[in-house]
Amino acid sequence: MTHVDASKKSVEAGKTNAFLSDMADRPIRWMVDDAAKFAAREVRRGKRYDGIFLDPPKFGRGPDGEVWRLEEGLPGLIADCRRLLDQDSKFLVLTVYAVRMSALAIGEVVRQALADLGGTVEVGEMAVREEARGLLLPTAIFARWSR
Ligand SMILES: C[S@@+](CC[C@H](N)C(=O)[O-])C[C@H]1O[C@@H](n2cnc3c(N)ncnc32)[C@H](O)[C@@H]1O
Q1: Tell me, what CATH number does 98's domain have?
Q2: In whole angstroms, what is the distance from residue 125 CA to residue 97 CA?
Q3: From 8, 15, 48, 84, which residue has the greatest number of CB atoms within 10 Å?
C-alpha cells in the first residue's frame, strides 16, 4: 500500500491512524510528495494498482510549492489514475468537500475516465450523524468506481 501526502504532518497523522487501527505492521510506503507528480511518475514507471483512494483538497501545495487547484487538476489526476488501473483493479474512491462541484459532476469525471474498464460508478454525499438529535451533518461528496 502507498500513502501520498504533501504534508509531513498529515503523513504522521496517517501513521498514527494505522497504529490505532492495528495496522502498524502492514507494508505501507509513506510518501511525502506532490500527488499529481507522484501519479505521473508511477505511470512512467509502468506501475499498476488494485485500487486508489483520492481525498484531495480544493486548494493545496506540494512539498516544492506545486500548486493544486481541484477544478483544474482533477481531470488530469483521474486520467493518470486510470493509467494506473487495469482489468484486475477493483476500485477508485474520490471524496471532495467545499467545492463548487456536485457529486454528479465528479461522478461524470470518474465515469468518463474509467469507461473502458467496465464496472459501475456510484455517487453521493457523505455525512456524520450528530448524537444528540440524530441530525445528519454533510461532510463531503464522493464518487466510487468499483467492480
Ligand atoms: C482533505 S485532506 C485529506 C487528508 C487525509 N486523507 C485525511 O483524511 O486526513 C487533503 C490533503 O491533501 C494534502 N495536499 C495538498 N496539496 C497536495 C499536493 N499537491 N500533493 C499531495 N498532497 C497534497 C494536504 O496536506 C492534506 O493532508
Answers
A1: 3.40.50.150
A2: 10
A3: 84
7 pocket-lining for ligand 1 (C-beta < 6 Å): yes
In a domain, 25, yes or no: no
* Best probe residue, ligand 1, of 5, 38, 72, 126 (max atoms within 8 Å of C-beta): 5
pLDDT in tens, 69-103: 999 999 999 999 999 999 999 999 999 998 889 99
Question: How many residues make up the chain in this entry?
Answer: 147
Which atom in ligand 1 lies closest to the alpha carbon of residue 95? 1
Supply 73's cell numbers.
Answer: 487538476
> Rounded distance, CA 40 to CA 11, Å?
20
pTM reported for the whole predicted model: 0.95
Task: Count other Cβ atoms within 10 Å, centred on residue 1.
Answer: 13
Which residues are paired to 85 by β-bridges?
none
Q: Is 10 in the pocket of ligand 1 (CB under 6 A)?
A: yes
Q: Which domain holds residue 63?
A: 51-146
CA 72/CA 118 separation, integer angstroms: 26
